[in-house]
Specification:
By secondary structure, the protein is of the alpha/beta class. The protein has 2 domains: about 1-75 and about 145-170 and about 175-230, Rossmann fold (3-Layer(aba) Sandwich), CATH 3.40.50.300; about 85-145, no CATH class. It is built from 9 helices and 10 strands. A 6-stranded mixed sheet has the order 6-7-8-3-9-10, sandwiched between helices. A 4-stranded antiparallel sheet has the order 2-1-4-5, covered by helices on one side. Helix 4 packs antiparallel against helix 5 (about 130-140). The longest helix is centred in the C-terminal third of the chain and has 16 residues, at about 160-175. It is globular and about 50 Å long.
Length: about 230
């Protein structure tokens, strides 16, 4: 579906990504894990078209994609970005629903599933961390693009809330969306993702299902945390 080939990215003398290649398959949930500073956000920004790259390419069904064309296929939700902080939540949702040509029914579903009704009249900048993340996830639910890149989608949630968001994301997958998730908590990644990419120092050092990663790490058993430590 989406093929990333030999992407490299530098900031001055610092090499953030080193010859990164992977495929995102139709209808899957692919997880991106790695230590802090490994290049996860840079990779998402480069593949989605937000960061220019001089080396490597991104293809869709065999055809190379320009950065502009990628934005028609990929909705990227970064971590820590908050839209229109001085506006009420309801107005922000109305705006994005209009931009994405989403129906009012979809807007109401997003509000209900992410439990945003209590804060619809509040200004975005006054929201707690958890409600801020709920708002941005609701915007992702309204998007029309078939591929969602979500950077730390469970940040700010407790365990029960995280499990609820996982259920929402699984339903998105069932509806035909393809998900690429950068996840800091390895237990969450193991619960949610069908395949995983392990990024360290800007390089892919492991890729596949948990079973395949165990083999790559030389382990016969173990959870994702044990595999992670063995590979890095």
């Amino acid at each position: 579906m989406l093929e990333v080939s030999h992407i490299s990215k530098s900031f001055g003398d610092f090499i953030a990504l080193r010859n990164v290649s992977f495929q995102l398959r139709p209808g899957e949930v692919l997880g991106l894990i790695g230590p802090n500073g490994s290049g996860k956000t840079t990779l998402m920004e480069a593949v989605s078209g937000l960061l220019p790259i001089k080396q490597g390419n991104v293809k869709w069904k065999g055809d190379e994609l320009t950065s502009t064309k990628r934005k028609d296929l990929v909705f990227y939700l970064p971590d820590g970005v908050l839209p229109y902080e001085d506006q009420p939540v309801s107005r922000v949702l109305d705006y994005f629903a209009e931009q994405f040509e989403s129906t009012r029914e979809n807007r109401e579903i997003a509000i209900g599933r992410l439990e945003l009704k209590p804060v619809l009249g509040k200004r975005v900048g006054t929201l707690s961390k958890g409600f801020r993340r709920r708002l941005t996830l609701a915007i992702a639910l309204l998007s029309y693009q078939p591929i969602l890149f979500l950077d730390e989608p469970f940040d700010g949630f407790d365990l029960k809330q995280t499990l609820g968001v996982m259920e929402i994301l699984r339903d998105l997958k069932q509806s035909g969306k393809t998900l690429f998730l950068s996840i800091h908590q390895l237990k969450d990644a193991q619960r949610m993702c069908e395949r995983l990419l392990l990024l360290a120092a800007g390089k892919i050092i492991g890729a596949g299902t948990l079973s395949e990663l165990r083999t790559q790490a030389g382990l016969t058993s173990g959870d994702l945390e044990e595999v992670f430590l063995a590979l890095i």
